[in-house]
């Protein structure tokens, strides 16, 4: 078994598709990383409200990953039927002999690896990325969350949250298992060392732009004060969210147009280009686990300003950035002013090396392959 190239089936509650082009892209990155060492297939069910007729399989191959997406109408039973159709397509029609299943996100699809385990005796592990186990989201939790999470976790050989903080939140929530932390991944060939030009200190924010999660309004209120005080700073803010709303919000605050710009949904290549022309990453989230944008920034040699939430403090120290408390706008202002003043004291090479050692395709794929070989039949 040690010399054999393993065949791994990725399943997930989130994955990019025609239904949503960016949701679950961090799962896609894990799949692409693992594909550097194993043969990887992805099976994902995408429900679309306008879908008519039976489930339809679409298959494509990119970056050494074969992705099978089954499109169907919404609803648990429709999605279950679509998943089974996709599984039979791979295992019975194409006769692929998988060594293990790698499931991502227990809620609400933890039943998928359990079904594969019971039907085909396939061992599985679970990667967890979800912020729903954070107590701040307690009032949003579905009544079946604990039951479904336990159901999916019970037969898992390993539970692999992306941070130690998330592991503890899952344990506190009541999910027991064999835990191994494996972090998010970054393509360090795509995200390379930043080299911004000019004397202006350029900050970058990339996210979903959802205010309750990312606190965009707080960032912009602080940026109004910062830009009024400092003549040589600039903020680029964007992502796959309501960009026009935040443009208007910034205008209403009176933020000068020459010290801020906005962008909408973009590709990974687009994000990498923006990072490579920036000096630092700026986040002010109310809750997180380990955002991919942080590991991408470190790979580019960018220090990070962030709130001390989730597992971020496991990686952002004084050498790699500045942490502030959630919602503390005065602290965020001080952090931005301090970083703008001292930006050239950060060791870009050390930041990139930290990312290479922990978050690169090679580092993450090696960790997962070790676990696959333990559980593979």
- By DSSP (H or I, 4+ residues per run), the number of helices equals 13
Annotated CATH homologous superfamily of the largest domain: Glycogen Phosphorylase B
Number of strands: 13
CATH class of the largest domain: Alpha Beta
What general outline do the C-alpha atoms trace? globular
- CATH architecture identity of the largest domain: 3-Layer(aba) Sandwich
Q: Unreliable segments (pLDDT under 50, ≥5 consecutive)?
A: none
Structural class: alpha/beta
Spatial order of the strands forming the largest sheet: 3-4-2-1-5-6-7
Give the helix level as a range of percent.
25-40%
The fold-level CATH name of the largest domain is: Rossmann fold
Q: What is the domain tally?
A: 2
Fraction in beta strands: 15-25%
Note the run of SSEs as H and E: EHEEEHEHEHEHEHHEHEHEHEEHHH
Mean pLDDT: 96
Largest sheet: 7 strands, mixed
Evaluate the radius of gyration: 21 Å
Report, as a whole number of angstroms, the end-to-end distance.
Answer: 9 Å
Keywords:
seven-stranded mixed sheet; Rossmann fold; 38% helix
Question: Secondary structure elements and their pairing?
Answer:
Layout: E1 7-12, H1 25-34, E2 39-47, E3 56-62, E4 65-72, H2 76-93, E5 100-104, H3 111-120, E6 124-128, H4 145-154, E7 158-161, H5 164-173, E8 201-207, H6 211-214, H7 216-229, E9 233-239, H8 243-253, E10 260-263, H9 268-276, E11 280-282, H10 292-299, E12 304-307, E13 321-324, H11 329-342, H12 348-359, H13 361-375
Parallel strand pairs: 1-2, 1-5, 2-4, 5-6, 6-7, 8-9, 8-11, 9-10, 11-12, 12-13
Antiparallel strand pairs: 3-4
């Amino acid at each position: 078994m040690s010399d054999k190239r393993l065949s791994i089936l990725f399943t997930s509650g989130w994955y990019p598709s025609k239904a949503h082009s960016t949701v679950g892209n961090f799962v896609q990155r894990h799949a692409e990383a693992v594909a550097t060492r194993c043969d990887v297939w992805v099976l994902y069910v995408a429900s679309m409200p306008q879908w008519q007729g039976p489930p339809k399989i679409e298959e494509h191959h990119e970056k050494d990953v074969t992705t099978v997406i089954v499109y169907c109408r919404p609803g648990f039973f429709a999605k279950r039927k679509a998943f089974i159709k996709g599984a039979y397509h791979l295992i019975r029609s194409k006769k692929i002999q998988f060594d293990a299943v790698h499931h991502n996100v227990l809620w609400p699809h933890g039943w998928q690896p359990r079904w594969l385990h019971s039907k085909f005796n396939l061992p599985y592990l679970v990667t967890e990325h979800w912020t729903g186990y954070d107590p701040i989201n307690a009032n949003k939790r579905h009544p079946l969350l604990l039951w479904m999470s336990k159901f999916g976790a019970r037969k898992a050989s390993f539970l692999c949250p992306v941070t130690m903080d998330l592991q503890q939140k899952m344990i506190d929530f009541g999910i027991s298992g064999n835990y191994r932390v494996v972090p998010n991944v970054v393509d360090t060939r795509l995200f390379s060392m930043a080299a911004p030009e000019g004397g202006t200190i350029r900050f970058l924010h990339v996210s979903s732009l959802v205010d309750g999660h990312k606190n965009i309004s707080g960032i912009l209120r602080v940026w109004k004060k910062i830009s009024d005080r400092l003549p040589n700073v600039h903020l680029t803010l964007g992502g796959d969210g309501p960009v026009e709303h935040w443009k208007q919000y910034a205008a209403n605050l009176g933020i000068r147009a020459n010290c801020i710009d906005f962008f909408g949904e973009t590709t990974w290549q687009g994000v990498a280009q923006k990072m490579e022309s920036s000096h630092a990453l700026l986040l002010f989230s109310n809750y997180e686990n380990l955002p991919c944008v942080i590991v991408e920034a470190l790979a580019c040699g960018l220090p990070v300003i962030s709130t001390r939430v989730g597992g971020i403090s496991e990686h952002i120290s004084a050498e790699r950035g500045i942490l502030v408390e959630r919602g503390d706008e005065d602290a965020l202002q001080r952090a931005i002013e301090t970083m703008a003043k001292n930006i050239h004291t950060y060791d870009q090479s050390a930041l990139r090396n930290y990312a290479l050692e922990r978050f690169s395709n090679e580092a993450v794929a090696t960790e997962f392959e070790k676990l696959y070989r333990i559980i593979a039949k």
